[in-house]
Write a structure and sequence with these properties.
The complex is a heterodimer.
Chain A: H1 23-26, H2 30-49, H3 57-84, H4 99-124
Helix pairs in contact in A: 2-3, 2-4, 3-4
Chain B: H1 2-25, H2 41-54, E1 58-66, H3 71-74, H4 79-92, H5 94-99, E2 106-114, E3 118-119, E4 125-129, H6 135-152, H7 161-173, E5 180-188, H8 199-207, H9 212-218, E6 221-228, H10 237-243, E7 264-268, H11 271-279, H12 281-286, E8 289-290, E9 297-298, E10 304-310, E11 317-321, E12 327-330, E13 334-338, E14 341-347, E15 351-357, E16 365-366, E17 368-372, E18 380-385, E19 388-392, E20 403-412, E21 425-434, E22 439-440, E23 442-446, E24 450-456, E25 463-473, E26 483-490, E27 499-501, E28 506-512, E29 517-524, E30 531-535, E31 539-542, E32 552-553, E33 557-561, E34 566-573, E35 581-592, E36 603-615, H13 620-649, E37 658-667, E38 670-673, E39 689-690, E40 698-700, E41 703-708, E42 719-724, E43 729-733, E44 745-746, E45 753-760, H14 761-764, E46 771-779, H15 786-796, H16 800-813
Parallel strand pairs in B: 1-2, 1-5, 5-6, 6-7, 28-36
Antiparallel strand pairs in B: 2-3, 2-4, 8-18, 9-16, 10-15, 10-18, 11-12, 11-17, 13-14, 14-15, 19-20, 20-24, 21-22, 21-25, 23-24, 25-26, 27-29, 29-34, 30-33, 30-35, 31-35, 32-34, 35-36, 37-38, 37-39, 37-46, 40-41, 41-42, 42-44, 43-45, 45-46
The chains are: A mainly alpha, B alpha+beta.
């Protein structure tokens, strides 16, 4: 879906939309897929940085921030696109978070948690807590 | 099968190399197979640390780990870390041996590393007390140490022994307090091949008289060398540095003076041997004397024994049968008690070790051992402990200037009174010195209850230091590790002097984290006249590096005491930072004789040892609380950002928003404009006018558009809705489905095309065929023409809902009249599958 969203059909002309395409099929899908990929890469990075967190604590933190901020930016873009898509087609009353998007959020949360475990294990050993 | 054969071949190789070294050097090639070593070689070489432990209040064990690149190939499975865990478990159990005597032993460990450089303990694993808290907590602490060590000692670089030992000596320097035993466990798989200038020059610097090795031994630091992969080495550096000589190469003063710390050396040529090597460390530092050819024949006088089985696979259990017929079945790990015998077992796939504490009066004789699966007898090692220790008996204060008789009780492993009667011979040695550092004549003799040391003291000896040692020999001639004790003894001076108590040692107790440790000195005046006690500035303060700025807090200066007066002085120390280790200082005390007495004008100087313990207990519960909290914190930003994203996107599109408000008449033929437009259309784009609106929600001509953001649920979208701004109206919108009561209709955030129809409640119940309504249309889609707009208005609004509402309203007003609204006809404009196509008006 590109360009200005419209109630007229994608082919143009006089044909109007009267069906009710869902946001899930109208809004861009690739940000959700990208969140999946980013999350999986994030989990791998968390495992790798768990051995390097002492020598390179910045690497584990940077990896966490990339996963967190990148994932949130993609989900934010997806939400923006979903709302933008309601300017096209008809009957977007079912504006909701699609199951795939929910799964992407859960995967992103797990990737953040994996990084969190790595960083927290290092930080929990600091004497400042005891 | 091939693997098993190779394991046996490898094991025999280890045994052979051990025997060869023993023969060549007469030293301690304490490999995993000690049956080929001289009978008492282990005891001789490890006796110093074992004896030290008997009167110690703490032990500091530094694990110096090689992390050179060769470990990637020599120990690819990282067995060394499993070995470290085994060794730490053994060390953590040391406390149990001294618990019976009522003394506690603080066990602290640290891990440092080396390759071409040295990595101090603070960068690997800092000093950590092992025996804090419950057994479960100890397991957690050990897991933490092992995990951290594995993370921070990944192989790279070369092998520089000089950097390693200099660094280790520095790490152990602040642990050299009175009553602390220091042990360096030095693990390497390589040889000395890198130095600042040349290996030969570095070796000469380390091994010359008064060199680094001599300094460490003289300071009482026991070095236990742990060598992996000895067959590939060209030199015996670790062997000579640990023990003084390898037979072909000496290092430091040889033989090692008897009052210096000696060392031990163990090696393994494979990872299975490495496991056993680490597993045997507990036995070594506790002074377990190998039985050698005596095997399972246990002499009288043995209070504790250890049997280690070398295995090819993990054994399920070991069954020991005592001479009195008691059968003890020990599992792979843990403690079991049977008829007074207490057995502690630990094992892995290459060994199974069981240490048995015998009950008082246990019969001597031959033990038997069997395992499941079975192990050959020739690969079973036995070693024994005396099972007694010496403990100062207390009693009246000896008088200065006379022969002081200081009694030491013989105590068994259960804390009960024991004796040396079971031994063939006991060699006693005693030594004492005064505050001036000069020795005093001391002799020891055995009594029925234990040992009495007689010391010739001088008139001004307010305090003497006494050391006694007893080496038992069993009836079969086995020389057990000496048992010993060292005590500071306060003496009673002439009555003309004031007294200070305690004067043997002032123990401030534990300074936990940053809480102070405090104790009191009691000063008592002479009955012969006014006296004076002067306290000087504390000297020779020794504390861990982390709290190097700590000072004893005590009111220094002279305190006058009237005849018979008693006063107290508080002494304390407050840690500058939480740490682990011992602290000690000498507090100079001057006791001046009573005025008017014949000794007036004279004084006695004493350096009072002040000791304390720094503790920084690892609160495992706090660790996991922090761990869990921080992990949850890592997800919190994601949640907050998702909330922020929802808040930012929960808005209407209001750019280029246009609209028109139309008065409608809705009848059986559907909606029509009132008054009708010339072109017959309900909606005409030429009539659209810009609508000012707030993206967050706005009201336009009686229709309020709002947003329920639902911010807290990350899995939901905001809900966009339209509702009448005034009461007494129902609303019907172009978004499906309509609500049953017409109080609210759905909306879309994009507002590409949106229509809301407002109907007065009272008109629904009327009898007219047609009812009036107001349609508010909002449009942001600039591609729509008049005809499109007209069709969208007709077809997206579910007009048939009005019929349902009217029917409900009629039923509410006059239930009988409802029948006239049941059947209907379709509206004229039915193009497309529109919601209005099913409009049912009347029959």
């Amino acid at each position: 879906m590109t360009g200005e969203p419209t109630w007229t059909s994608p082919a143009g002309g006089d044909t109007l939309r009267f069906s009710s395409p869902s946001v899930g099929s109208s809004a861009k899908q690739w940000p959700v897929v990208a969140v999946f990929v980013l999350s999986l890469v994030g989990v791998v990075m968390a495992v790798l940085t768990s051995h390097l967190v002492y020598d390179l604590p910045g690497l584990a933190l940077a990896s966490y921030l990339v996963v967190l901020l990148g994932g949130c930016a993609l989900i934010g873009y997806r939400r923006y696109e979903a709302i933008r898509a309601t300017r096209t087609g008809g009957g977007f009353a079912d504006l909701s978070v699609q199951p795939l998007e929910k799964l992407a959020i859960i995967t992103l949360a797990l990737a953040c948690l994996a990084h969190g475990a790595v960083l927290a294990y290092e930080a929990a050993g600091w004497s400042v807590w005891f | 099968m091939v693997g098993v054969v190779l394991k046996w071949i490898s094991r025999l190789g280890v045994a052979f190399s051990a025997a060869a070294l023993a023969t060549a050097g007469g030293l301690l090639p304490a490999s995993a197979t000690q049956e080929n070593a001289p009978d008492d070689a282990l005891a001789t070489n490890a006796s110093q640390i074992a004896t030290c432990l008997q009167s110690a209040r703490s032990i500091s064990g530094l694990f110096l780990f090689d992390q050179s690149g060769s470990l990637s190939s020599n120990d690819p499975d990282e067995v060394r870390y499993e070995g470290l865990e085994t060794a730490l478990l053994s060390l953590s159990r040391l406390q149990h041996a001294s618990e019976a005597t009522g003394d506690s032993l603080d066990i602290e460990v640290a891990v440092s590393a080396f390759d071409g450089d040295y990595y101090p303990a603070r960068d690997v694993v800092g000093w950590t007390q092992l025996n804090d808290g419950e057994d479960a907590d100890r397991g957690e602490i050990i897991d933490q140490i092992v995990t951290t060590t594995a993370e921070r000692t990944q192989p790279e670089g070369g092998t520089n022994f000089e950097a390693a030992l200099e660094g280790a000596a520095e790490d152990l320097a602040d642990r050299g307090t009175r009553g602390n035993c220091r042990v360096l466990f030095w693990f390497t798989d390589g040889e000395f091949e890198r130095a600042e200038d040349s290996v030969e020059a570095a070796r000469e610097r380390m091994c010359r008289e008064d060199g680094l090795l001599d300094e460490m031994r003289a300071a009482g630091i026991t070095i236990i060398g742990l060598q992996l992969n000895m067959e590939d080495l060209d030199s015996d550096d670790l062997l000579s540095m640990a023990t003084g000589s390898s037979g072909t190469q000496d290092c430091g003063t040889v033989p090692v003076p008897s009052d210096w710390a000696n060392g031990a050396f163990l090696h393994a040529d494979d990872t299975a041997g490495l496991r056993r090597l680490f597993g045997s460390l507990g036995n070594i530092i506790e002074g377990c004397t190998p039985q050698g050819e005596r095997g399972a024949e246990i002499d009288p006088g043995v209070g504790r024994l250890n049997v280690t089985l070398e295995t090819l696979e993990q054994t399920e259990q070991v069954e020991l049968t005592a001479p009195d017929g008691t059968v003890i079945t020990a599992g792979p790990d843990g403690t079991v008690t049977e008829s007074g015998y207490t057995a502690v077992a630990h094992s892995d796939e290459s060994y199974h070790s069981v240490t048995v504490t015998l009950p008082p009066g246990a019969a001597s004789g031959t033990w038997s051992v069997s395992s499941v699966p079975e192990t050959e007898e020739e690969f079973t090692d036995w070693c024994v402990y005396p099972g007694v220790s010496l403990q100062h008996a207390g009693g009246d204060e000896p008088t200065a200037g006379q022969t002081a008789h200081i009694a030491f009780d013989v105590v068994d492993t259960h804390g009960g009174q024991a004796s040396f009667a079971d031994y063939e011979d006991v060699t006693l040695t005693a030594a004492a010195h005064g505050e001036d550092g000069h020795p005093r004549e001391a002799t020891a003799e055995m009594t029925d209850d234990g040992v009495v040391v007689a010391v010739d003291t001088e008139d001004t000896d307010a305090r003497i230091q006494v050391r006694v040692s007893a080496q038992p020999t069993t009836i079969s001639g086995l020389h057990l590790t000496p048992v010993g004790a060292e005590e500071g003894i306060a003496l009673a001076l002439s009555s003309v002097f004031p007294s200070v108590r305690p004067l043997d040692e002032l123990d401030l107790g534990s300074a936990v984290r940053q809480d102070p440790a405090t104790a009191e000195l009691t000063l008592s005046g002479s009955p012969d006249g006014p006296t004076e006690v002067c306290l000087g500035e504390p000297e020779t303060l020794t504390v861990p590096e982390e709290v190097s700025g700590d000072q004893l807090t005590v009111e220094t200066g002279c305190i006058g005491l009237d005849t018979g007066e008693t006063r107290t002085v508080e002494v304390s120390v407050t840690p500058g930072a939480p740490t682990v280790g011992n602290g000690e200082a000498d507090l100079p005390v001057r006791l001046s004789a009573a005025e008017g007495s014949e000794a007036a004008g004279t004084s006695v100087d004493v350096d009072l040892p002040v000791i304390w313990r720094y503790e920084d207990p690892r609160d495992v519960g706090a660790f996991f609380t922090v761990l869990t909290g921080l992990m949850l914190l890592s997800v919190l930003p994601l949640y907050l950002i998702l909330v922020a994203v929802k808040a930012a996107t929960a808005k209407y599109t209001t750019a280029r928003l246009q609209g028109e408000t139309i008065e409608l008449v809705i009848g059986p033929d559907g909606p029509r404009r009132e008054p009708a437009a010339p072109n017959g259309l309900l909606l005409d784009d030429s009539r659209l006018v810009p609508v000012p609106a707030d993206p967050g929600g706005f009201t336009h001509n009686g229709v309020r558009l709002g947003v329920e953001k639902k911010l807290l649920n990350p899995f939901s979208m905001p809900e966009f809705y339209a509702e009448p701004a005034a009461t007494g109206q129902r609303i019907l919108t172009s978004e499906q489905p309509p609500t049953a009561d017409g109080s609210r209709g759905r909306a879309t955030p994009g507002l590409g095309f949106f229509a809301a129809v407002l109907i007065d409640e009272h008109t629904l119940a009327g009898d007219e065929d047609e009812i009036r309504a107001t349609a508010v249309v909002l449009v942001t889609d600039t591609h729509l023409w008049s005809a499109d707009l007209d069709r969208l208005l007709r077809d997206t609004v579910p007009w048939s809902t009005i019929a349902q509402w009217r029917s409900q309203a009629k039923q509410s007003a006059t239930p009988a009249a409802a029948a006239s609204y049941t059947a209907g006809s379709t509206p004229p404009d039915d193009a497309g599958p529109s919601p209005g196509a099913s409009l049912t008006w009347r029959g």
